[in-house]
Amino acid sequence: MFMLPAAGDPYFKLKSFGYVDEGEKLGYDVTIYDAGGYGNLSRQVSQIEDVIQRGVDAIVLVPASSDGTVPVVEKAVDNGIPVINDGIATNTPKVTGFVGEDSYVMGEMLGVHIAEALGGKGNVAMLSGPAGLDLTNSRVSGFKDYIALFPEIQVVAEKLTSTSSAETMNVMQDFLQAHPEINAVYTFNGPIAIGAVQALRAAGRQPGEVVVTTMDLEVETERLMGDGWIQMTVVSQPVTMARLAVRRAVEAARGEEIPAVTLTQESVITKSTLDAVDLSGQEVPEDWGK
What is the pLDDT of residue 279? Predict the structure, then answer.
């Protein structure tokens, strides 16, 4: 069973392909549960409770909350059901295994790009992503720790947000009204970056006038990068990550010993390297899911 916080996000659509395709290759039925948004912790907990009662072989979980899913994950493991965290960790040592990225390093990479683009001096806004996730905290910490090396780079606006482009557009518009001197934007993921770009466009800014950085790469963020609105992203191979999570879940269900942590390799992409970077770890067939 695969438990997602927001299956409608483009990133999780990529993961869903990895789950389904790899599961079928290994001869397993795949069912994907969607909490309907990071704010719907109670729904995700209820879904996990349901599959525990059904006695499934294993659970692959992207938690809606790193702390809020602790009791139900521990219950699953105590009932003999392995739990593999994919991308976001549940904060308990009872989790069977974790497959993901080095989120701190990914945040640092955004810091490196912004520091270089601004020449070590400027004003940054942060659309930091969903609250309550170890992933959010690690990415933000990596970014802030790096730019702290540059005293003339200041974070002038910061907010935790959902991954809704409409919400982050409104937040970014507020940021620009309060701080028209913003030179660069840190965004948690593609949909958030899209909202930031929409706000910049509405404010009359031109592509590249404000440095926009993000993580992951979907169709729309790739287009905005090609158009010059997004200058850089870091990708973490979500399809590959999903496939690895399936394999670890199957191995654990069979009683095999698995690594506590399995990490994918992140890659930096700019407009000039868009055609040169290996994106096979996040590619899906064009007709999949239609």
Answer: 74
- Cα(237)–Cα(282) distance, rounded to whole angstroms? 5
Q: Which ranges constitute the DSSP H helices of 28-159?
A: 41-54, 70-78, 103-117, 134-147
| Distances 59 to 25, 84, 137, 155, 236 between C-alpha atoms, Å | 18, 6, 24, 39, 22
Q: Which residues contact 42 (CB under 8 A, 6 or more apart)?
A: none
Q: What's residue 218's pLDDT?
A: 85
List, in sequence order, the alpha helices (H) in the chain.
10-25, 41-54, 70-78, 103-117, 134-147, 165-178, 190-202, 219-226, 238-253
pLDDT of residue 219: 85
The Cβ of residue 224 has, within 10 Å, a number of other Cβ atoms equal to 24
Distance from C-alpha of 4 to C-alpha of 12, rounded to nearest angstrom: 8
Alpha helices in 1-133 (DSSP H): 10-25, 41-54, 70-78, 103-117
Which pLDDT belongs to residue 68?
96
Residues of the chain with pLDDT below 50 are none
| Pair type for strands 232-235 and 261-263 | unpaired
Contact (Cβ atoms closer than 8 angstroms) between residue 93 and residue 66: no
Residue pair 123/183 in contact (Cβ under 8 Å)? The answer is yes
Give residue 71's pLDDT: 98
The reported pTM is: 0.87
